[in-house]
Amino acid sequence: MARKMLIRALPPEWDIEITQAGSGREALDAYRAGRVDVMFLDLTMPEIDGYTVLETLRREDLNCLVIVVSADIQEKAQERVLDLGAIAFIKKPVDAAKVQAVLKDYGIIV
Amino acid sequence: MNAPLLTQDQKDALQEIANIGMGQAGASIAKVLDEFVQLSIPRVLFVPPEEIPVALALTIGEGQVSSVRQAFHGSMRGEALLVYGDQRCNDLADLMGYDGKLDHASELELLLDVSNVLAGACLGEIAKQLGMTIGFSAPSLMADAVPLESLLQAEALPWKTALLVEVNFRLEQRSFACHLVMLMPENEVAALAAALDRFLESF
């Protein structure tokens, strides 16, 4: 459900292939398989949470852009994920305009 | 075998919406306490009322609990239970800057205040996401340091099945933990199901 809500908020003209992951572990698997350039990452997830995914990515030479999408809107949560290397924090429910703005800021879409 | 009260899609949607509500409540309480609040994945399940303590024990553990109840009404109706573990008041009083000299009555008042903030923020956001109306009765103390299994006996719910939505808040570095349980009787679930369908149709 969370993934559907996010996918609906992605720019329709953005030409990408989407890989969905149901947990932090699946996200890391997809990343390690080289399928990820941009990762939209939740924080509250089964098995491995978003913070741990960020820490792991950083240890493994973070070479994808991570945008955290979470309902955890505490200021400290936002600070933590940015410290851990996420490029942006988007709160749930996801606002399509916000996604678009972040992607433009980073030159991911024009 | 009765038809399930909510479909899997409806349950998934409710879980995600509960997640958003939990985030709102977590941020509110983090601000009040000036502490980082750890959130967990919400649970959504149907249980007969007598099995609620068993269901709660899975996340709360055994031991004594205190509990606050708050009824909500509007197009979304039911009861919110806020269940706190043993250490609840010492930690709360400490966090709010009292010097461990808080008398029992003030402790309980603090517990009611915190409960009110959590339930209001969480359920208010769930109702908002679903386009439902919600109002709250004043919170009241339901149990003061009782064993978890006796939690609902005094306040037996005359329902056959209850929808249980549970979110948990835990403070890092502290033993304070609160479990917010939203209970709805089965005859109130139809309105919720219709609202979930409207929500799902927007996809």
Q: What do these coordinates show?
A:
The complex is a heterodimer of chains A (110) and B (203). Chain A is 42% helix and 13% strand. Chain A has 110 residues and is an alpha/beta fold. Chain A has one domain: Rossmann fold (3-Layer(aba) Sandwich). A 3-stranded parallel β-sheet of chain A has the order 1-2-3, sandwiched between helices. In chain A, strand 1, helix 3 (50-59) and strand 2 form a beta-alpha-beta unit. Chain A starts with a helix and ends in a 5-residue tail after the last helix. Chain B is an alpha+beta fold. Chain B has a single domain (8-201), classed as Chemotaxis protein chec. Helices cover 42% and strands 28% of the residues of chain B. Chain B is built from 5 helices and 8 strands; from the N terminus they run H-E-E-H-E-E-H-H-E-E-E-E-H. In chain B, strands 1, 2, 3, 4, 5, 6, 7 and 8 form an 8-stranded antiparallel β-sheet that branches. In chain B, strand 7 (162-171) and strand 8 (177-185) form a beta hairpin. The longest helix of chain B has 27 residues, at 104-130. Chain B is globular, with a radius of gyration of 16 Å. The two termini of chain B are 31 Å apart. The mean pLDDT of chain B is 88. Chains A and B meet through helix 1 and helix 4 of A and helix 1 of B.
Strand proportion of chain B, as a percent range, falls in 25-35%
The H-level CATH homologous superfamily of chain B, spelled out, is: CheC-like
Mean pLDDT of chain A: 94
**Shape designation of chain A:** globular
The stretches of 5 or more residues of chain A where confidence is low (pLDDT under 50) are none
Order of helices and strands of chain B: HEEHEEHHEEEEH
> Could you tell me the radius of gyration of chain A in angstroms?
13 Å
Strand content of chain A: 5-15%
In short:
The complex is a heterodimer of chains A (110) and B (203). Chain A is α/β, with parallel strands linked by helices and 110 residues long.
